[in-house]
UniProtKB/TrEMBL annotation:
Keyword Nucleotide-binding: yes
Domain spans labelled ABC transporter: 5-238
UniProt keyword list: Amino-acid transport, ATP-binding, Nucleotide-binding, Transport
GO BP terms in the entry: L-amino acid transport
Pfam families: ABC_tran
Signal peptide limits: none
A molecular-function term among this protein's GO annotations: ATP hydrolysis activity
InterPro entries assigned to the protein according to its UniProt record, in alphabetical order: AAA+_ATPase, ABC_transporter-like_ATP-bd, BCAA_Transport_ATP-bd_LivF, P-loop_NTPase
Family: Belongs to the ABC transporter superfamily.
Protein name as catalogued: Amino acid/amide ABC transporter ATP-binding protein 2, HAAT family (TC 3.A.1.4.-)
Top-level lineage group: Bacteria
Organism of derivation: Thermoanaerobacter uzonensis DSM 18761
Amino acid sequence: METLLLLENVSVKYGAIEAIRGINMEIKEGSVVCLIGANGAGKSTTVNTIAGLVKNQTGKIFYDGKDISKWETDERIKSGIAISMEGRRIFPDQTVYDNLLLGGYTRRKKIKELKRDIDQIMDRFPILKERANQLAGTLSGGQLQILAIARAFIAKPKLMLLDEPSLGLAPILIKEIYKMIKDFHKEGMTILLVEQFAQYAFSISDYAYVLEHGKIVIEGKSEDVRNNPALSSAYLGE
Ligand code: ATP
């Protein structure tokens, strides 16, 4: 498998706070990689840095063989990187359906195909179908989260960055989201899955990284990391 994303010695500081310190990561094309860690370990900073929402002070980020460290977020999105952040980037004054339509707009040409994909996603999440004509601004936090994730998938990115997709959701919705991740992985999508609790993430990922205080402390095949005695049971909890 080819390398799709490579982080070399990437560090990010917010003032005096060192959020991530000299991170090295590799994501092979077509794989699912999970990044786990406790609150404040630097998971969101890592994802936001890959998406260009935060700039790295040291190191380099290579995507598809190109150094994208200096690229703006929109250039990264155009080249196939998508980030689903909780509720953000959703247009509250547009309907749920139009939000889904807009999600596919950037990367798709055929409206027919796009509408078919939206129908499929709405079948999976009946809540989106029921509320298709409702303004997104009227959705609950959990519903917004589903919409944000569904929309990111509809764009069919080459690299999908999922930041704690299961956070605060009911188990039944978590299962649906993980099913969706599996399906898109089967279709060849490369996925970086960030989670605080890893029991689901280990089961669908090929490779895992564990972040503590801004540093990668354990990495390896998900199966091995899950059974690594050095892994804090806190990550398996809930
Ligand atoms: P969480 O699960 O709570 O989102 P995380 O693993 O994603 O945690 P980050 O959000 O990346 O961790 O935060 C890493 C460190 O950087 C923390 O100490 C946090 O307080 C700090 N931090 C994050 N964002 C900012 C910011 N915009 N300004 C200042 N400090 C920040």
